[in-house]
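Weekly modeling sync, notes
Attendees: S.R. (lead), two postdocs, one rotation student

Agenda item 3: backlog of single-chain predictions. S.R. asked that every request posted to the team notebook include the full sequence so nobody has to chase files. The rotation student volunteered to paste the first one in as an example of the format we agreed on. Action items at the bottom.

Example entry:
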Amino acid sequence: MLCRRSLRRFLAVAGVLLLAGLSLSAQDTKRRGRKYKAPPPVSRIEVTILRDSDSKPIENASVIFHLVGDTGNMELKTNEDGKALIDVLPIGSKIRLQVIAKGFQTFGEDFENDQSELTLGIRMKRPGEQYSIYKDHSDPREKAAPMTKDSGSDDAAKDKKSDSEHPTGNEPKALQTQPQ
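Predicted structure, as returned to the notebook:
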């Protein structure tokens, strides 16, 4: 009886060890699964946002990075020193940088990311005065300079004809008073 009991235990232990061995061999990584692909090398980009008028840092400005040819973007906010730091953009990529700050003109520029460390300084300007139809523009000092065109273009002949129709050349026909 003792012999049968020990034989059953031996077979049970041998079966468990056999199953454990088979399950470990099933996890062989040489034949299964994806191969590891290392991420591309990345660069460290530090952007400093300053006011153009007094060179003081602009806090909480949005610094947006767009990888050209890729969907999506990455947006950071500047700290109290006007700095934003990103270190996940791959070297060799073309990047479109956009900066938006309340009370300043939006900045945008494309550049090649070809260095492992890059420091950018951007000076933000206040927006210029907008044209208003409600303001009196009769003062000649306030008028904008007329647009110039190439003399070889077909539009130049049309401009000469339209200038002869207008007495001053600067006012549209609808605003002139017509004698009746």
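Discussion: group reviewed the output briefly. Strands lie at 42-51, 62-67, 74-77, 83-90, 93-100, 107-113, 117-124.
Action items: rotation student to repeat for the remaining queue; S.R. to check formatting next week.
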